[in-house]
Amino acid sequence: GQNIDQPTEMTATEGAIVQINCTYQTSGFNGLFWYQQHAGEAPTFLSYNVLDGLEEKGRFSSFLSRSKGYSYLLLKELQMKDSASYLCAVLSNDYKLSFGAGTTVTVRA
Amino acid sequence: IAGITQAPTSQILAAGRRMTLRCTQDMRHNAMYWYRQDLGLGLRLIHYSNTAGTTGKGEVPDGYSVSRANTDDFPLTLASAVPSQTSVYFCASSDASHNEQFFGPGTRLTVL
User: Fold this and answer.
1) pLDDT digit string, tens, across residues A39-88
2) Closest residue in chain B to residue A37, using alpha carbons only
3) φ, ψ for residue B81 (rounded to 5)?
4) What's the gap between Cα A9 and its chain centre?
5) Which helix (H) or strand (E) holds A107?
6) Which of A33, A84, A103, B61 has the fewest other C-beta atoms within 10 Å?
7) Distance CA A46, CA A42 (A)
8) Which of A31, A87, A101 sits opposite B40 (nearest CB)?
9) Could you report the per-residue pLDDT of B36-84, keeping only the tens digit for each?
């Protein structure tokens, strides 16, 4: 099975940087995903890491260390619209996604 | 339609009733999934299908059944609903690369 941990809540100021950490223990690994979910809406894809290192996509970056069972999502130049829940998910060897409980990020003016 | 659709958007159901949640995708994705999302627990996989004609159990399959008669449709059935099945249900799909799962808009189900 999978055990995925991420902080419950984070608060940051508009224009700042926030880093959301995710640790996982897995019986099989085929990649790590980050999703964004606004209240009352469906999750939307942000990033996918299968190899170690940093993937940058605009204001969002995601990092993976497979040996440490660790990932983070970095949100730069925070905007009010970034207030949402961020979900860390691990893809197993049989292609099933297991999700963490999500981190609610609140951006304050 | 484009992407994934789910129906109904929301439903209030009496305990003991049978209910089918519908999910349709037009992206010709092989794999489809059903999740439930509950506060504090995140998304949990109920059932999945890697290709038409096959299904598998996820983390919380009890009380639910699925079928995959064709590529596009993946209905989820609650044979006899119970209050603990009150949740938001999301359907998702992915192609053979499994590099991204696309989610439907969700169905909010309340069982009284």
Assistant:
1) 999 999 999 999 999 999 999 999 999 999 999 999 999 999 999 999 99
2) B103
3) -65, 145
4) 13
5) strand A103-108
6) B61
7) 13
8) A101
9) 999 888 899 999 999 999 999 999 999 999 999 999 999 999 999 999 9
The answer for B106, left when phi > 0, alpha when psi is -120 to 50, beta otherwise, is: left
Tokens at A23, concatenated: 């640790």
Q: Quickly tell me which residue has 């639910």 as its tokens.
A: B64
| Residue A69 token pair | 């069972």
Question: In sequence order, what are the beta bridge partners of A45?
Answer: A35
**CB-based contact A30 B98, cutoff 8 Å:** yes
Tell me the per-residue pLDDT of B83-110, one tens digit each, with 9 for 90 and over: 999 999 999 999 878 778 999 999 999 9
CA atoms within a 13 Å half-sphere pointing along the CA-CB vector of B77: 8
